[in-house]
Design goal:
single chain, about 350 residues, alpha+beta, 2 domains, globular
């Protein structure tokens, strides 16, 4: 076969249409399937589950598509109030039924290789007026915002955002440790840096495996202790090991925990509050902050979150909790966790 025959064959194939390479339908899902542990929180009251920071999901959607409102966003939500019919129990007493808030939401996506023009339609509901134990009722004045955020992030999960949490991988301690290793190597959820942080984590593990094992404490001589490499900490029996995360990772954890405590607060306000707090102490960047202070702040923020969760169970809404804390001279963002928890006992006594 000569060159002209080859050329005619190629032209014929083009006219008939060569088979296009298969479209990777899992490309976006694969990018979003891993969730940083610092952007999750274990909810321990009521039904136990792993919650994902909604602002993390919105950030990663913006990273993939572009600014919200320009490259992706929602149609105006349609809210309606559902009044369920009365229920009569076996004794003929009419039971009070919660009033539900219903939403119809359309999330649209465009300008992205994975989804050039897509729509996701969802319906969802939550309690707007709940029934208290004493037969009264409580109105959730934040129900609209919470329902909108919950429905939006649920739509993002259908595209793969946080899928490792929804697939139950966060119930595996080995998987969580793997994610934390990646974060310690600098990964923040950005899929573009995942490969290099994986390599960094692998290199760190290899170096750790090659490191000579220290002699037992009982046989270590004073000379051996004096020649210990600088920066390597001796294990002390009975003490909690130091947090291996960097200062920047601890600051990110503080911001994420505070976002969970007050999910409707703008991320910019939370960042300004926390960074302003550090700057007032003379610390311009995370590296300047003393480790013992940062670790204590992280522990206090976790306790503060537990206290707020308990208070919401007592007072019904976050707005009511905020009012109760203000009356007691406490702050939702920076109140003493022990004093905050005491309010649950006071409320229990008053009832």
């Amino acid at each position: 076969m000569n060159d002209s025959d080859e050329t005619k064959k190629d032209d014929t194939a083009k006219e008939q249409g060569a088979a296009a390479p298969p479209h990777d339908t899992m490309r976006l899902w694969s990018k979003w399937e891993k969730t940083p542990a610092s952007m999750t929180k274990q909810v321990t009251f009521g039904r136990k589950f792993t919650a994902i920071s909604p602002y993390y999901q919105i950030r990663e959607t913006t990273r993939a598509f572009g600014p919200m409102g320009e490259k992706w966003g929602t149609e105006p939500p349609e809210f309606s109030i559902l009044q369920l019919p009365e229920c009569v129990n076996a004794n003929g007493v009419v039971q009070l039924i919660p009033t539900l808030l219903h939403i119809k939401l359309t999330v649209w996506f465009g300008g992205c290789e994975q989804i050039p023009d897509g729509r996701i339609h969802l319906e969802n509901c939550s309690e707007l007026i709940s029934i208290t134990k004493d037969g009264g009722f409580r109105v959730d004045d934040e129900a609209y915002k919470k329902l909108f955020t919950d429905t939006l992030t649920k739509a993002l999960s259908y595209l793969g955002s946080g899928s490792d949490v929804f697939l139950g991988k966060y119930e595996d301690s080995r998987y969580i440790q793997h994610i934390k290793d990646m974060e310690r190597s600098g990964w923040d959820g950005n899929p573009e840096t995942e490969t290099e942080t994986k390599n960094g984590a692998a290199t760190a593990k290899t170096q750790e495996a090659r490191r000579p094992t220290s002699a037992p404490e009982a046989t270590r001589t004073p000379a051996a202790s004096q020649t210990q490499p600088q920066g390597e900490q001796k294990p002390v029996t009975g003490q909690k090991p130091p947090d291996p995360r960097s200062n920047a990772a601890l600051v990110n954890s503080l911001l994420a925990d505070l976002q969970f405590i007050d999910p409707d607060a703008p991320a910019s306000e939370i960042n300004a509050y926390m960074l302003g707090k550090f700057k007032r102490k003379g610390w311009a960047k995370p590296a300047d902050i003393p480790r013992d202070y940062l670790e204590a702040e992280c522990a206090a923020m976790v306790k503060r979150g537990e206290a707020v969760n308990a208070l919401v169970q007592v007072y019904g809404t976050l707005a009511a909790v905020r009012t109760a804390l203000g009356a007691a001279g406490l702050s939702l963002w920076g109140g003493d966790p022990a004093a905050m928890m005491e309010l649950t006992d006071r409320q229990g006594v008053s009832e």
